[in-house]
Amino acid sequence: MTFLTKLAIAASLATALTSTAMAADLVVGFSQIGSESGWRAAETSVTKLEAEKRGIDLKFADAQQKQENQIKAIRGFIAQGVNAILVAPVVATGWEDVLSEAKEANIPVILLDRGVDAPQDLYLTSVASDQVKEGHVAGQWLVDTVKDKDCKVVELQGTVGSTPAINRKKGFEDAIAGHANISIIRSQTGDFTRAKGKEVMEGFIKAENGGKDICAVYAHNDDMAVGAIQALKDAGLKPGTSPLVVSIDGVPDIFAAMVAGEANATVELTPNMAGPALDALDAYLKNGTMPAKFIITESKLYTPADNPQGEYDSRKGLGY
Ligand code: AHR
User: Fold this and answer.
1) 277 DSSP assignment
2) What residues line ligand 1, using a CB cutoff of 6 Å?
3) Nearby residues of 250 by Cβ (< 8 Å), 6 or more positions away
4) Which of 42, 167, 228, 298 has the fewest CB neighbours in a 10 Å radius?
5) From the candidate CATH numbers 3.40.50.2300, 3.10.180.10, 3.30.1360.40, 3.30.70.3180, the one assigned to the domain spanning 3-128+271-297
6) Which of ligand 1's atoms lies nearest the C-alpha of 249?
7) 293 burial class (0-12, 13-18, 19+ CB within 10 angstroms)?
């Protein structure tokens, strides 16, 4: 073995050791909203898995739906001197101070799945879906499905003040605008939870002649749709036939509802926001590569024509 070969082997060994050590040394704080939905639980599992795969020490903080807990957790991460912070912001406003503190401490922040109303230089990148598009895809599906038929829609909104609630509402309204036969007759928050979705749907059914006049339910997430389906069945109605049910996320339970003929469409939201986020972070920390400010995930429509049993089987166990 020549000296140069020995040198090359030693150098590559050293590089391998250094990069393993770098990954192992990386400490990332993750401020998660809570566990309001099946999708959220999956995002948490996938994030932990993606961190583990990369040898990252992930400090996890569950905010139990409270922004004040998220702010406290982020301040804690800054005090610990973590290398980066991931945050799924529960609502859009009220982040400027804490994000500025992270910036002053030179800690890059990456937003996951929801946006903030704050200057863009306060975060490295945002990995999320195009939430207006998600609402639009759901609305367009309804427009194409009901055609010229009159259709009264009830809407279950997500958490008040959150970007998916604001944007999914807007996207849906944009899609049905200009179709005078389709109108939203009731709209209320179900806070992205199954229990609240059921409770609010029960109120809609009572207020709307036992639900007989409701043509479609639009829920900002699948969990609320699943809760609404239960309320409709309890009232003797046939969700999936009358009313139609359209929602967003693509969790296994909505595919099970499609198999049972009780749900009609969902717009998929991947729970893997952490993969692209940690790739972007890795490149940034290694050589200063600036990621795109917005990394947008796909928004694909699924209906009972798309093998819901297969979709259920392939998702079940993936952290859901
Ligand atoms: O921010 C993403 C939304 O939050 C998901 O659609 C919903 O299920 C979750 O709780």
Assistant:
1) H
2) 36-37, 39-40, 113-114, 164, 192, 221, 223, 248-249, 269
3) 222, 266, 267, 268, 269, 300, 302, 311, 315
4) 298
5) 3.40.50.2300
6) 6
7) exposed
